[in-house]
């Protein structure tokens, strides 16, 4: 066997191939054969990072829809009724509430009563304000956690903490951890999808990142457009160009697969190429609503006069369609156009009215539709912001951040509908009964999907990492 070598001035010279070179070429050839099989076989997904994996024990839920209320909704104006705020409205909170913790802006105003009427809803009797007339219709499906706390009072760190269990940038998001633990039941779409309503939260895309986990587990952001991803419908000419580029990349991968095949980052990169290619068929089919009835579209508010209801309604409908297709974790962010998200340091009434009008009908429709399609019992729905708001005003008509006690709720797969656990003090200021933190929420979410949060670990930087770090207890009261 001989090998041709480039000589001076473009000439060629020949010499016998030595044994080491021959073995190296053969090894590369076998690696290329394996990679070719991965890329071209219809069963290639069986070895990819998103392949469905067994749980630690039978889970009640298979999928998660995380409704992220960016900015921090006011719990004392939505789900945590506090008559004391009406009694002491307009008084100095330092005199009636007592010692106050520093706030972000330290612009402490008077005690501020809720501007909306509260009443008990459903057989369970959840207190809910008039901000959620549609959601109140399914109140018995909700399990309220009314004593959640955060370690952080500013948005960026609190966002990281809510999503990753850590207040610092660069850690894996809960959706990435869930994909790492369970994979996905759909190999044509990403297992972790973020339906972005128009605003990326403080902290940016790291809220949906994979951190030290393989990059294939990061969230894929879909924009609120008919074509949610760039180049998802390439022209015929671009399609041929893309195929040529993929073929070139495949050739490069084949040439180096013998040396790098065991590298998880190379595995993830190859899988990402393949998933992106498959999405050109799967995403247009997902976005085609021709198989949805007009009644369903009206249910979600796609014909509403308020544009943000249409946007969030489309997100909720797509979330149900993604669950139908086996996507593991879907997160929804709120649309822009309502001012500063749920972050009403001023203009509380206008801001919360608009935000609730945006999400109320679509979320209620999502729960009803999951029931109609038989997906409710296997889909975990979680509603949460990164913290709550103070029971006293910032200025005259806003509320500052409050990480010391706020409300989140869960519904669906494995959740005890109608349950309520925990309580804040009589002002809604601090959690005083069954105080929970985000680690407990994460542990409970994983448990409902059949994952023991203490056993779902990844070796990094010399230690076994996990979503809940060294913390986390189950919120047993909300588990059916």
What does this structure look like?
This protein is α/β, with parallel strands linked by helices and 480 residues long. The longest helix is centred in the middle third of the chain and has 25 residues, at 236-260. Helices cover 33% and strands 18% of the residues. Mean pLDDT is 87; it is low at 1-14 and 25-45. It has eleven helices and 20 strands. Helix 1 (19-40) crosses helix 6 (236-260) and helix 9 (307-324) packs parallel to helix 10. It has one domain (56-236, 266-478): Alkaline Phosphatase, subunit A, CATH 3.40.720.10. The strands form six sheets. Strands 3, 7, 8, 9, 10, 11, 14, 15 and 18 form a nine-stranded mixed sheet that branches. A three-stranded antiparallel sheet has the order 4-12-13, with no helix packed on it. A two-stranded antiparallel ribbon has the order 1-2. A hairpin with a 6-residue loop joins strand 16 (423-424) and strand 17 (431-433). The termini are far apart.
Element layout with pairings:
Blueprint: E1 2-6, E2 12-16, H1 19-40, E3 63-68, H2 83-87, H3 93-96, E4 108-111, E5 118-121, E6 126-129, E7 142-149, H4 155-164, H5 174-182, E8 192-195, E9 220-222, H6 236-260, H7 264-287, H8 294-299, H9 307-324, E10 329-332, H10 348-372, E11 379-384, E12 388-394, E13 398-402, E14 406-412, E15 420-421, E16 423-424, E17 431-433, E18 436-437, H11 438-448, E19 458-460, E20 463-465
Parallel strand pairs: 3-10, 3-11, 7-15, 7-18, 8-9, 8-10
Antiparallel strand pairs: 1-2, 4-12, 5-6, 7-14, 11-14, 12-13, 16-17, 19-20
